[in-house]
Design goal:
Blueprint (H helix, E strand, L loop, with lengths): L3 H8 L9 H5 L11 H30 L2 H37 L4 H33 L5 H36 L5
Helix pairs in contact: 1-6, 3-4, 3-6, 4-5, 5-6
The structure holds fe (ii) ion (2 copies).
């Protein structure tokens, strides 16, 4: 089930050099000062996705230590649902509203925005797989099926596989978007 776009995102070492000029205009060490309001909100959203991923990784770790699949089910399924819903909503707003606006305001970065849009497509595939994996685990637990542990393992593998591409995307997107908000007037 290897997806070349997801593999490329997972192994990308950072934002490609040709899209880093905005970051050079407004480097990360200046992000701690007073930020544009939308830029600050964007960073907050990304921090919450990182926190959410870490929380779910932690729940899987607790399950590996305790073997308590019921506890994993009770805590992970609602956490996963909320993660999937929020991340999907975030990507829709970015790809549907912000990215087209950014392409208009700063056409020179359009290819960088295209890269971020392709990341969304790749991540969407992994969200879909996570949704299916979550359902399968949920159904196994509610039916008290014999393969609960297999389904939990499968879900844990999917969470693992999705983490790196997501974290890569969040960081690379920030490297384009935060300087854009800060340096260009991209508000309506
Ligand atoms: Fe994004
Ligand atoms: Fe984002």
């Amino acid at each position: 089930m290897s997806d070349p776009a997801a593999d490329a995102l997972a192994s990308r070492p950072g934002l490609p050099v040709e899209f880093r000029w905005l970051l050079e205009e407004f480097p990360r060490d200046r992000w701690s000062g007073k930020l544009d309001e939308t830029a600050a909100f964007w960073l907050q959203m990304h921090a919450s996705f990182r926190g959410h991923q870490a929380h779910m990784d932690g729940l899987v770790g607790q399950w590996r230590a305790s073997g308590d699949a019921q506890a994993l089910h009770r805590q992970l399924i609602p956490a996963l649902q909320s993660f999937l819903q929020h991340l999907d909503g975030h990507h829709r707003v970015e790809s549907g509203q912000y990215f087209p606006m950014m392409r208009r305001i700063e056409p020179k970065i359009a290819a960088g925005i295209d890269l971020l849009d392709r990341d969304h497509d790749a991540i969407h595939e992994s969200l879909e797989a996570l949704f299916q994996g979550g359902m399968a685990f949920h159904q196994a637990v509610t039916a008290n099926a014999p393969d609960i542990v297999d389904k939990a393992n499968r879900l844990s593998d999917l969470l693992d596989a999705g983490a790196r591409p997501l974290l890569r995307h969040l960081e690379d997107e920030e490297d384009i978007v935060i300087p854009l908000f800060q340096l260009r007037d991209i508000h309506d």
